[in-house]
Amino acid sequence: MRIMGLDVGSKTVGIALSDELGWTAQGLETLKINEEENVFGFDEIGKIIKEYEVGKVVVGLPKNMNGTIGPRAEASQFYARELEERFGIPAILWDERLTTVAAERVLLEADMSRKKRKKVIDKMAAVMILQGYLNSQN
What we know:
Elements: E1 2-8, E2 12-18, E3 25-32, H1 42-51, E4 54-61, H2 71-87, E5 91-95, H3 99-109, H4 114-137
Parallel strand pairs: 1-4, 4-5
Antiparallel strand pairs: 1-2, 2-3
Helix pairs in contact: 3-4
């Protein structure tokens, strides 16, 4: 059973998948969405769940630094609930504080251009969210 990791934003969703043993996370893609127009990409997520036989989803929960829940975290909670209801698989909310910052640092150290970083930052953040979860389970 694979596990999917998601970094949910207002315009994109970074997607990562575990290997079948649940040891490593690999970036899959960045899905364009539009929160303002209620376009959340659930059909595309459903296709990935089916194709890769995903049994669980880990959704990044962007808490504030003081641990409180703000509007972005509420949006992630909504997304996780929708995934559970639509696809009948568990959705775990995972504290993702600083994952995007860490992803940005990794890409900067790899000397990646700003244009290229923008295309992969959400996917890289999803990898970090999922890998953090996988490490906690093993």
